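INFO batch 0412 | record 1 of 1 | parsing
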Amino acid sequence: MGGHVMVSGHGAKTYAAAEDKILLLPEGLHSFAGAEAIMTNGQAGIFHKLLYQDAFGTEFFSNVPCLAYVLRGRETFFDADGEETAVAPGDTLLVPRHHHMVSEFSSETGPLEAVLFFFSDAVITEFLAATSCGVTTAPRSKTALFSGSPSLREYVGALPRVYGRLQASPALVKSKLLELLLLLDLHDRQGQLWRFLAHENSQRARRNIKQVMRAHALADLSVADYARLSGRSVSTFQRDFKRAFGEVPSVWLRRARLDHARDRVIEGKDTIADIALAAGFSDTSHFIKAYKSQFDLTPKQHRLHLA
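INFO prediction complete | emitting tokens
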């Protein structure tokens, strides 16, 4: 997965992201408490996020390139490489497509307000064509610095007020996203935004289905979610999955999660109920039956056998 792009330099620390329910972006924001769509068209769109209560351990995965501009409050992000990034008011965080992060917000100093922008390939392509800066290569971009500007803050802050109650057309969604990129470009004298998006534009192909599944086998995702992560329709995903693994996704996922559960049973640190929940079983008795069917022993028998 590509590295994130952070505006303003903040300290880096290590953090191990928890494996929990993953919020897929932007789709998951439609049902996320505190988030409201300003305008959307497919995966492209603009969302307003306003949180008054603590939100710790929010795990998310970006399906498309995303830009987050913080208006109020502070939010901390931890990526899969163990790097911590604190985002303050006026900071802009760019997140590549297919990127996994965990966010933390404490309401001690007040609410968190941010506007999230999600860019379609069409918007990125049009921006790159309009602003070509003579760069012929598009290396992976890990850092981009945009100092806060009054014009950017005024533009972003006005969006919820101006468009929040309107039914925006696809043409308006595209034009507002393109306008934001062009405004950012005016403050980006080093061309880092252009290089970042050029790299994103080169990453549109389908992802390796084996890499996707092995990286996210334990996530609480549906087959449709896995299809989106891999850049495929559900029918194409199921066909390609069967070709890659020789079985349907539900069977492979069940075995992969049970194999992981067996490792935790052997370690002996967690309760059977906790292991069952982590493996995707809300019913412990159902988990025990599935475990015995797979390994010929119940989890308890397995531990006793190893003792």
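INFO post-check: The first strand starts at residue 5 and ends at 6.
INFO record closed
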